[in-house]
Amino acid sequence: MDPTTCLKSLLLAINQYKNNRSVPNASQLQRHIDDVSKVKCGRLLVSGQVLPSECLSGLVELAGDPNTSPALTGTIVTVLAQLASDDESREALHSTYNLTGTLASVIHCNSSTPREPVVLQCLQVLQKLTYSERIPHCTPYMDELITFLIQHIQSPNDDIIIPCLGLLANLCRCSLSVQTHIKALSHVKALYSKLINFLAHSSLTVVVFALSILASLTLNEEVGEKLFHSKNIHQTFQVIFNIIINGDGTLTCRYAVDLLVDLLKNPKIADYLARYVNFSPCLSQVLGLLHGKDPDSAAKVLELLVSLCSVPDLRRLLCCTVVQPPGPRLLAASRREGQRRGADPDPGLALLHWATLPLDGPEACYLQALQLFTELSEEMVIDADLSGSARAFLDLLLPMALGLLRQPDAPQSEAQVKRYCSRTARVMDLLLDILPHATLLSSDEAMKTQVSQQLSADLCVSQVELLLSSSHMTSGFSCPTPSPDLSQVGSEVVLKLLELMSRFKELVHDMETSFYRILQDQRMVTPLSLALASDRREHVQTALRILLEAAPLPDFPAIILGECIAANNAYRHREAELSAETLPTLGRSSVPQTTSQPSPSPKSINHLIEKLQSGVVLQEEVKDMRVSEIMDVYEQKICALASKEGRLQDLLEAKALALSQADRLIAQYRCQRAQAEAEARKLASLLKEAERRKEELHGELSAKILETERAKTDLNQLLQHNSRLQADSQEYQSLKGSYNELLHRCTECDRMLKELQAAHIVLNKQAETLRKQNDNLKVHQERFINQLEEKKEQVEKLDADLRDREREIKGLQQERRQLEEHSRQRDREMEDRGNTIEALRKELSKAEQARKEASIKASSLELQKTQLEAKLEKKEEQLSKHSQMIAMIHSLSSSKLKGEEVNL
């Protein structure tokens, strides 16, 4: 069946059921809802068109109405759960239709029966809707929803505990007002105790939900300091990494990654993680999850890796793990195209796979992968130790990034264009980061040549033309409704492309000419005006840098740029006035109605009630019950009229916005028309000047014809003269050959002469050196002769002294003989004493040997004692660690905590 027909039938059934809530109408509406779910027109329902919006608003209104039958409410919630399957649908249901407040009202109405299927369905849908969304505390029925969740996490049934914990984790994670409300509750300590008990639960999902809630509520408080203390945080890290690596599903892994990302925002915990001893193996296992994972899990792993890059120490470890070890292997593995099945998986190739996914693939994966590549390239340039791996890494990144820009087919739909612009913006960030570093890191010209060959001017120009020529830059890229956000993203990409061209206009061939030609294009007015009026600092700075280069150009449309900026400012001012005039009033009625429409004014309702009480229809004698019924009927009718008035007001605002945008387009058209007329007048004056110039040239042409005839006669004479010159030229060539031979001989002689002169100079220097040495030797010889004469005189004196000494020696010899006789007697006495000393010496050597053996044994025993003491200390440390672990496991697994152990 046609989706439009199904939606029309559904809208008719919704209106019939609102007018008459009978069983046949309810069954008919349920049947049409089933038909719509079978046709699979979920994308159409959240497309923003009028018919699907009316159907979805009616379904949300019926779901929040307590008078709707439970079976029909369950069917509607089932359809809404199917619609909340992707991010865009969840965003539309949350922001446009305020489905969060409606489902909270359904849970509040059925709080007495929490095990009903409709309650579980509402909890599951709310968990999807509130994931990574900031839910304000002023949302209708938020207090009742928080009370319901805190009450039922103490239920013994895991079927309701898990969705309650997951929803409470979502509400606490992003909303400071919800956290403040929960902390102000009187029984918050009991909640903390219950959550701490959940840390010993058998389900990893319950554990990670409890940790997420505790981290959101107590991270910066005394309870959080005790729970995430340095003694316990390493075990918490191990639990989180085990859940991420060995989790029992995508949901558990997703919440574990979010928990670790939130913990990394605390500088103290980030420092603990940097000093975590098992971080490197855990990081390698996390990188291994990129192989063979589904896109959702891979996106969360990439998000975790990008978050790790926010901590400098962790980013360096991640860069070493990805870049340095497999640096040479990355290029070889990419050439072999993944034929290494037996080798370890390469994280670089896995990141490359997710970064080069097609445009229709999972957007979060390739955007996070490109962001991670940008972070790694920055760290690679900062860290000098990784400079050796920079070349191989850049050789891999540069072709990948440029290849992503070479897309053969231009995107058509708004979703494709948005994906294309988002990815191109990330690619441009990567190129702007790695290309300057690539040229700086390369010591030779090979890398610069490779960059200039791969980054061509045609590639940049084609990308700029693709964005400028499409209508999305002004009115939403050929989509039926304008998309200002999409225009902003497209302008951002155009400016980044121009910044890249500006940086490499001198290195790449024809880049400078293309750059200045694009700057003088009138279509550059839109991206420049949007960037100058942007609220992001880097966009304004980029636009100003480009404007400084474009302003001196002769054909730069400065006047049109000023008109466009003025029109944008007027549009913003008008939009601010309309939003201030139509600011919705927040309120909550006792009867749950659809919260996507503005609530009726309480003053008008009270005024109508006073009229009813004082009118002719209702008299004083009518019973109170009858009056209350009539008032309920009129209140419902007034609410319906107020909702219709709100829808009309929304349509009026949309028309006003469209009108203001049309005024802006008309102003741009008038500027372009004025410029076109000025150019037409300029072309007409140029045409007249060309005609006058043509007549002048016609007269000059006749004169040139006469000159040509005279030139022909001169040419014949020149030909004759040329023949004579050719003969002279041949003679000149022969003379030139002989001259070249003589010149070659002369050159050879000059070269030999220079060589001989150089040798002559060297020999002269050597001769001068030898002459100086000879003079020095003569001086030394004379000095030695003088010393020799002095030595002879000294020898004669020594001979005379020697004779005197001989006479003295003879006298001394006689005395020596006498002493020898006396000495013999002493020798005999010494022999006796020597025998005695020898005997004592032997005994002393034996005692010394015994002493050495005893000393060796004592040293060996001391060494054994030291070793035994070291082993004993290790055993005592191990025993203390085991006792601490046993105490912690006992505290986590115990069902009740003693008051003196955990003091909240």
From TrEMBL:
Task: Give me the segments passing through the membrane.
Answer: none
**Could you tell me which InterPro entries the record lists for this protein?**
ARM-like, ARM-type_fold, CIP2A, CIP2A_N
Annotated stretches, region: Disordered? 582-603, 813-836
Ordered alphabetically, the record's keywords are: Coiled coil
List all Low complexity biased stretches: 589-603
Q: Which residues form a coiled coil?
A: 659-728
Q: Domain named CIP2A N-terminal: which ranges?
A: 22-577
Protein known as = CIP2A N-terminal domain-containing protein
Which organism does this sequence originate in? Albula goreensis
Taxonomy of the source species = Eukaryota, Metazoa, Chordata, Craniata, Vertebrata
